[in-house]
């Protein structure tokens, strides 16, 4: 099921084994992780093209967007659901993230997905979307510790690959049961816990609670990755020092600024670097999704990439509504002296 998209042959970040990486930062059971920064799984964003960009810049492993097990098991499984599970060999270690409210379907689908060759399978227990959480999937599982224990014990016994979990702090401020759930995960066979320092009710509002992430790290013997309010290179050092976490997951702050995985803040990235990466990202999107969908799905990334560029306000709406690659390219070169660095028409790579 993995796809033959071309990794950047010039990238020093193609593969940990190829770049002479030092000792792993940590292990997910027996899977070595060469690095401490990880692109967080995000629905609609952490697809194969963006993951590949982030891996080349230093993200240490890949997570798919979360996938509904019911969509994979239906009589007419959606192409979109299976497309989310496509990956490039350079992304390894590769983690499939799945979710579901039915225990049996969750476990049986995870077992079946091993045939596609993931290195790790992760259970999403953090999605706050009402239709998912209130059915008992995503963060809805946080209200059912016994269910978490049953699912992870079954998965740990049935899978040949490690099983991990991504959690929030609880359903709301009145039920912050993250410590109990973390201990259950550690006792039930999980090989890593990723902790988003907010409750389901918070969604992305308020501040992430790094104290809670630190508590989880101290309470379990397996690796813990911290997630929430990491927006700059300085934040990476701060959350690691504050929580002691083994790795740092970066989500929204990486959209439009994947250079954060190379420990570069947005203001350190030149216009030429930004345009060159937009060009590569668009080319990967067109190859993966096709010319029409590839451009449409890239526009949301483009709106973030241009943040802070001269003329951003004038570019934003046209970029979000353009319908051809040529039109897209013209928008970025309009009013400037033509320069090859600003051409976004894909070339062979």
How would you describe what is shown here?
The chain has 349 residues and is of the alpha/beta class. It folds into two domains: 241 residues, Aldolase class I (TIM Barrel), CATH 3.20.20; 69 residues, Non-ribosomal Peptide Synthetase Peptidyl Carrier Protein, Chain A (Orthogonal Bundle), CATH 1.10.1200. The protein is built from 13 helices and eleven strands. Strands 3, 4, 5, 6, 7, 8, 9, 10 and 11 form a nine-stranded parallel sheet that branches. Helix 4 links the parallel strand 6 and strand 7. The radius of gyration is 20 Å and the shape is globular.
Summarize the structure.
By secondary structure, the protein is an alpha/beta fold. Helix content is about 40%, strand content about 10%. Residues about 10-20 and about 335-349 have low confidence and may be disordered.
The appropriate CATH architecture of the largest domain is: Alpha-Beta Barrel
CATH C-level label of the largest domain: Alpha Beta
User: How many structural domains does the protein architecture include?
Assistant: 2
Total strands:
11
Briefly note the structural class of the backbone.
alpha/beta
CATH superfamily of the largest domain: Aldolase class I
DSSP helical segment count: 13
Distance between the amino and carboxyl termini: 22 Å
Characterize the largest beta sheet: strand count, sense, and whether it forms a barrel: 9 strands, parallel
CATH fold group of the largest domain: TIM Barrel
Specify Rg, calculated over alpha carbons. Answer: 20 Å
Q: How large a portion of the residues is in β-strands, by DSSP E?
A: 5-15%
Shape: globular
Average pLDDT, all residues: 89
Extract low-pLDDT stretches. 9-20, 335-349
The H-and-E topology, N to C, reads as EEEHEEHHEHEHHEHEHEHEHHHH
Helix content: 25-40%
């Amino acid at each position: 099921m993995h796809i033959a998209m071309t990794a950047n042959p010039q990238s020093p970040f193609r593969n940990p084994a190829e770049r002479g990486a030092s000792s792993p930062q940590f292990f997910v059971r027996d899977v070595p992780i060469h690095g401490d920064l990880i692109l967080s799984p995000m629905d609609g964003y952490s697809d194969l093209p963006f993951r590949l960009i982030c891996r080349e810049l230093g993200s240490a492993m890949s997570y798919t967007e979360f996938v509904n097990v019911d969509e994979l098991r239906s009589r007419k499984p959606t192409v979109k659901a299976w497309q989310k599970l496509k990956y490039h060999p350079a992304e390894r270690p590769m983690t499939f993230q799945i979710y579901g409210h039915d225990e049996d379907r969750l476990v049986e689908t995870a077992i079946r997905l091993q045939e596609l060759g993931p290195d790790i399978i992760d259970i999403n227990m953090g999605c706050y979307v009402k239709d998912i959480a209130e059915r008992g999937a995503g963060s809805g599982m946080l209200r059912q510790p016994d269910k978490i224990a049953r699912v992870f014990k079954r998965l740990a016994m049935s899978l040949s690959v490690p099983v991990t979990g991504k959690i929030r702090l609880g359903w709301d401020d009145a039920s912050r049961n993250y410590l109990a759930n973390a201990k259950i995960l550690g006792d039930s066979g999980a090989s890593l816990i990723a902790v988003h320092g907010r409750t389901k009710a918070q969604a992305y509002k308020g501040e992430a609670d790094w104290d809670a992430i630190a508590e989880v790290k101290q309470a379990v013997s397996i690796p813990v990755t911290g997630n929430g309010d990491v927006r700059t290179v300085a934040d990476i050092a701060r959350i690691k020092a504050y929580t002691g976490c083994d790795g740092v997951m970066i989500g929204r702050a990486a959209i439009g600024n994947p250079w954060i995985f190379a420990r570069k803040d947005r203001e350190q990235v030149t216009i030429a670097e930004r345009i060159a990466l937009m060009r590569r990202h668009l080319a990967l999107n067109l190859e993966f999704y096709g010319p029409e969908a590839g451009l449409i799905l890239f526009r949301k990334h483009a709106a973030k990439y241009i943040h802070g560029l001269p003329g951003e306000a004038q570019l934003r709406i046209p970029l979000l509504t353009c319908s051809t690659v040529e039109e897209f390219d013209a928008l970025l070169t309009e009013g400037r002296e033509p320069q090859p660095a600003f051409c976004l028409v894909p070339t062979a790579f």
